[in-house]
Amino acid sequence: MQYRNDKNGNPISLLGYGCMRFTTSMGAIDIDKAEKEIMEAYNAGVNYFDTAYIYTGSEAALGTIVKKKNIRDKIKIATKLPQYLVNNKAALDRYFNEELSRLQTDYVDYYLMHHLTDYVAWENLKKNGVLDWIAEKKKSGAIRNIGFSFHGDTEMFMKILHDYDWDICLVQYNYLDEFAQAGRAGVEEAHRLGIPVLIMEPLRGGKLVDLLPETAKKMIKENPRGWSPAEWAFRWLFNQEAVTCVLSGMNSIEMIQENCRVASEAKAGEFTQNDIDFLEKIKKEINSKMKVNCTACRYCMPCPKNVDIPAIFRCYNEMYTESKHSGRWEFAQTVGLRKQNQTASQCIGCGKCEKHCPQNIAIREELKKADKALRPITYKIGIAVAKKFMLKK
């Protein structure tokens, strides 16, 4: 196993264990199976284990296993504050203490503000006293490092990133999402600031493995590198010095062994131009079912009514390259939950965007189609309720 250092020089394994996808049986986590898998990863050198308050049973399972195997001082545990449930300073202690109890520990190595999508969510936490609270917990040693996990756009990521002296951040990032959410720009900016970057969804929830188009699978099989689809995705990330650790929700011994092997072999900067070009061809195959030929160049921006045209088209395309639910869920997280309304409903049809589009997309017409597809009535209601709840003043 290889390691890259955190902000304080402490080694973090290049591969981290995402504890959201433990195998369940009859509605409960199969603790014996989870124990075997965690110890397989631990013995292979994995030292970073990631969980969260809302991952049902995950914190308790991890805590039970770590205590039983007596490895607490040999690993790093990361968990997350359910910031969307916090409405006063007392709630900060309530949730944190409950997490410590579940984990059977008196400190957390990395504590993240969970699922920030908009700066206003972080602003609300500050209004509820989170800055003083963090200072108190860090002084006592109950929290060793503070960070945030993010689902939003690059602009919001940058704003949150620069607003506080973070110790770590966690973002969704893979070769298909290179310019989505925090994106490469966000990852590299965090690295420039000396903030370790952890990666979630390296395989897009398995979509870069099992759900690849048959043409892409065939291309990968015939490539002289001999790498599997998963290995291509992991190596693309490990190739970047800005990436500190890649989380994987591993739930089989075979998967753990394979991922640990790759994390032991891959080197930053090993990709050749041929490798880069090859993945671009794979992306082209994945995106062959796109509805709108948008390259996210952002020449169409800014929109005078703040419509996030590239983000909307990306989510619209995802409905057809992956699934309707996937595209709508991505839209809800990255566009729908912003404080400022940036949906296509704000478009006034001025046509300014179309004058600057290198792809000559009929943006106004395509926005209408995208909005109709992304926001059926049930999603409109759901987004409105979630927005009121998560971005409450």
Name the features.
single chain, 393 residues, alpha/beta, TIM Barrel, eight-stranded parallel beta barrel, globular, iron, NADP_OxRdtase_dom, metal ion binding, NAD(P)_OxRdtase_dom_sf, 4Fe4S_Fe_S_CS
Class computed from helices, strands and strand pairing = alpha/beta
Q: How many strands appear in the DSSP assignment?
A: 12
Outline the biggest β-sheet: 8 strands, parallel, barrel
CATH architecture of the largest domain: Alpha-Beta Barrel
**Alpha plus pi helix count:** 16
Helix proportion range: 40-55%
Overall pLDDT level: 94
Radius of gyration: 21 Å
**CATH class annotation of the largest domain:** Alpha Beta
Domain tally: 2
Summarize the structure in short.
With 393 residues, this protein is an alpha/beta fold.
Give an overview in words.
By secondary structure, the protein is an alpha/beta fold. It has 2 domains: 3-278, TIM Barrel, CATH 3.20.20; 290-390, no CATH class. The chain has helices spanning 31-43, 58-69, 89-103, 119-127, 130-140, 154-161, 183-192, 214-222, 229-238, 253-265, 273-286, 309-321, 324-336, 352-356, 363-374, 377-390, and strands spanning 3-5, 11-13, 15-18, 24-25, 28-29, 48-50, 76-81, 108-116, 143-150, 168-172, 197-200, 245-248. The strands form 3 sheets. An 8-stranded parallel beta barrel has the order 3-6-7-8-9-10-11-12, surrounded by 6 helices. The model has no long low-confidence stretch (mean pLDDT 94).
Layout of helices and strands:
Layout: E1 3-5, E2 11-13, E3 15-18, E4 24-25, E5 28-29, H1 31-43, E6 48-50, H2 58-69, E7 76-81, H3 89-103, E8 108-116, H4 119-127, H5 130-140, E9 143-150, H6 154-161, E10 168-172, H7 183-192, E11 197-200, H8 214-222, H9 229-238, E12 245-248, H10 253-265, H11 273-286, H12 309-321, H13 324-336, H14 352-356, H15 363-374, H16 377-390
Parallel strand pairs: 3-6, 3-12, 6-7, 7-8, 8-9, 9-10, 10-11, 11-12
Antiparallel strand pairs: 1-2, 4-5
Helix pairs in contact: 1-10, 2-3, 6-7, 8-11, 12-13, 12-15
